[in-house]
Design a protein that fits this description.
Radius of gyration: 17 Å
Largest sheet: none
Order of helices and strands: HHHHHH
Shape: globular
Number of strands: 0
Strand content: under 5%
Structural class: mainly alpha
Helix content: 40-55%
Number of domains: 2
């Protein structure tokens, strides 16, 4: 995306995501400013994090993130967007930045089966109500989950 980034991250230790974002910010901004002869901050605001309640919502987040370039009119298929995990998860293209999430691994027993199952997640358009729910909970930094859990 031209003005933001989505990451689906599962931390191994508490506070890891905040520290990761802080480290990325420090390193990337330093190199960006140096490369373009500028100074100062680069980011518009603080990062937003959303806790995802369960596997169904995690898969919806995968779809939301992978389909974002389509909604923005940048590509016609998720595989065309170069800064995405779609080609890794759906086509098996190696990417050292991506670690398989347990939700992805649970899609099938074999790598071929997982890739096929992942591709099938994109057979249908993500429901607009889910798109709005993901946006709303992300903006508010709330839990993405069922209403029964008191998260929305």
């Amino acid at each position: 995306m031209r003005n933001h980034v989505h990451l689906f991250v599962t931390p191994l230790v508490p506070d890891a995501i905040g520290k990761m974002i802080q480290s990325i910010g420090r390193r990337y901004v330093y190199h960006f400013n140096r490369a373009y002869g500028r100074t100062g901050t680069l980011w518009e605001g603080r990062y937003k994090a959303t806790l995802v309640q369960d596997d169904a919502y995690a898969l919806a987040c995968y779809r939301y993130i992978e389909l974002n370039p389509l909604r923005a009119g940048l590509v016609e298929h998720p595989a065309q967007y170069p800064h995405s995990s779609y080609r890794h998860n759906a086509l098996g293209t190696a990417d050292f930045l991506i670690s398989a999430h347990q939700v992805y691994l649970a899609l099938a027993e074999t790598p071929f089966g997982r890739r096929e199952a992942y591709r099938h997640l994109f057979d249908d358009v993500l429901d607009e109500a889910m798109v709005e729910k993901i946006r709303r909970t992300t903006q508010a930094c709330r839990v993405l989950g069922s209403d029964e859990a008191g998260s929305d």
